[in-house]
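Hi D.,

Good news: the full-assembly prediction came through. Inputs first.
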Amino acid sequence: KNEVEQSPQNLTAQEGEFITINCSYSVGISALHWLQQHPGGGIVSLFMLSSGKKKHGRLIATINIQEKHSSLHITASHPRDSAVYICAVRRGATNKLIFGTGTLLAVQP
Amino acid sequence: EAQVTQNPRYLITVTGKKLTVTCSQNMNHEYMSWYRQDPGLGLRQIYYSMNVEVTDKGDVPEGYKVSRKEKRNFPLILESPSPNQTSLYFCASSLSGDGSNYGYTFGSGTRLTVV
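Then the structure:
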């Protein structure tokens, strides 16, 4: 079993829909990151969370440390949101990152 | 422009021929790291560095070497490449090791094929 699991693996949505991507982890962590990988391959950091909730534009990320779970929400989705979304956790007090295998999101107009 | 620059973008090489993939950042970041990305396995960390002359292994360091002689550069060295090192490689940097303060900045990737 992977230490970081994402669901769903693939997600197709219609423009305007509310989207949720989930990340569960089984190790102790000091931080969790959400990344976005564009169709061309470039990777961008979206959020770093150690507790609570963060919001940036139409993106919202939450984390529940007790349940070892994080969610990434996209409100009013748009075709330009189509990308792979990757969850990564920083293991314990180290600077090692463990990644989920990603969620491929396609938003159709 | 603040960026992480990797070179080359594409490389095809033969088994056993030593190669170096360069990574350079212009943001005075303390932390730099290398990852490989494979279908079905996602991203995996190879090596990371907290500062000059400080490097540590990630989850898949076998077959790779790194060095951090200057703060801005963090080359990835494959002394004797093998076909199982065919992959997409990313370099990333951040101000601090935990990726706080603006997260990680990634390079554009290097697609390596070893035949």
